Amino acid sequence: MKTIEFNNKQYQCPENWNEVTVEMLIHSAELSEILEDATMIAIMSAYTGIPVRELRLNNLSAVQEIMQCLVFINEPYKVVPDNSFTFNGEVYECEIELVNQKFEDWVSVQTCLYNFREEPYKALPRLIAILCKKEGETLEDFDLNERTRAFMKLPMTTAKNVEGFFLHSQNAYKSLILLSLTT
């Protein structure tokens, strides 16, 4: 993160995708819904914490440093599917075969998807909290809400890689089902 000064205040600005958190990503999506014609302002505000109004009312020259810092957003992040990650010194892992997940996990995932059906982008930290656990853990072993809040601080790259694993695994599972139905 780069420290920048804007309107005589100091802010932190990410310089690459690894420095963008899930929380920033979700906040950016929320602001983008409100600022439909000003997505760049939404991203700048969400990623730096600078109020939208201050960004809107400043000259282009005043936001130049922020735009230079955020130049990485012009290159979409390339997902590398992964079923494990380390966060705050702890290793979290998702079952490689999603069909081997516990039934309670499946029910929790379905409930999460239903609860966030209007804003599915908000479901990601909870889905990761449900499906990625420390070795030997079950949902009964931790506070799901607390872990979801903690995973809001995950680097966006980690969350997107795990999401990529989920999507890849779901597609492979669906293909196997379709294949078994046709043979």
Q: How would you sum up this structure, described in words?
A:
By secondary structure, the chain is mainly alpha-helical. 51% of the residues lie in helices and 11% in strands. It has 8 helices and 5 strands. The chain has helices at 22-34, 39-48, 52-56, 60-69, 103-115, 124-131, 144-151, 156-182, and strands at residues 2-6, 9-13, 84-87, 90-94, 132-133. The strands form 2 sheets. A 3-stranded antiparallel β-sheet has the order 3-4-5. A two-stranded antiparallel sheet has the order 1-2. Strand 3 (84-87) and strand 4 (90-94) form a beta hairpin. It is elongated. The relative contact order is 0.15. Mean pLDDT is 88; it is low at 171-183.
Helix-strand layout with pairing:
Blueprint: E1 2-6, E2 9-13, H1 22-34, H2 39-48, H3 52-56, H4 60-69, E3 84-87, E4 90-94, H5 103-115, H6 124-131, E5 132-133, H7 144-151, H8 156-182
Antiparallel strand pairs: 1-2, 3-4, 4-5
Helix pairs in contact: 1-2, 5-6, 6-7
Q: Which descriptors apply to this entry?
A:
183 residues; mainly alpha; three-stranded antiparallel β-sheet; two-stranded antiparallel sheet; 8 helices; disordered C terminus
Structure summarized in a few sentences:
The protein is mainly alpha-helical and 183 residues long. 51% of the residues lie in helices and 11% in strands.
